[in-house]
Amino acid sequence: MLADDNDAFCAEIETHKFFGDIGSTVRRLGKLAFLKAAQPELTKVFEKPGPDMLGHSTTHVQLVSTLGASARVIFKKYEYTAKISEDIWYAEDLPMNPIRKEWIVAATQSGIPMFDELTDKWIAQVKGAVVKQVVVLELTDVISKEKTVIREETEVTNIEDLEPAQLPDDVFKVPACTGGKRSVTDAAKKVLDMGMMSP
Q1: Residue pair 140/82 in contact by the 8 Å Cβ criterion
Q2: Where are the beta strands (DSSP E) in 74-156?
Q3: Domain count within the chain
Q4: In a domain, 23, yes or no
Q5: Tell me, what's the pLDDT at 33?
Q6: Rounded-to-integer distance, Cα 131 and Cα 155, Å
Q7: Can you give the residue range of the structural domain that contains 132?
Q8: Could you say which residues of the chain have pLDDT below 70?
Q9: What integer pLDDT is reported at residue 161 of this predicted model?
Q10: Is 133 within the bounds of a domain?
């Protein structure tokens, strides 16, 4: 949705194609902006037994990912580094949410090897459903030396076994579209034409 409600739109996307399209766009814009990215790295700091949570044994793993990139748009240069620290508590006896699993698997198919490999490495370290996760992102502007820190914490507070008959009929119903229905590509072109985004 754009700032103006009149520009709201609806679009349908296929998960795997979505990440493939992102990869194609990044590669195309990367050439225009002379984008250079350092090989991202993922390090497992530790893995140890965690506390019982919601009646399930957990494993506490801490992962740290680092990456950096630079780009030049016309005469201006941009350069950033990022450090992502994750504390994850997962339960091996709980299956991963199928929707979350679909997105994670799809994220390994962007067509950008370094990022696909990073996601593969993350998946290999998290062997069950995530019950709690604390993520700290440190984004540093290498040129101005400014640093932004963002912390997010999520935790599952309740687990219930549901039978198909218990699910409301409209649980998977797609919400009604209140704006015009356009393709994501058409919407992106409009944003570019309005000067709200530049490659």
Answers
A1: yes
A2: 76-91, 129-141, 147-155
A3: 1
A4: yes
A5: 46
A6: 6
A7: 5-156+170-193
A8: 1-35, 73-74, 162, 165-166, 171-172, 174-199
A9: 74
A10: yes
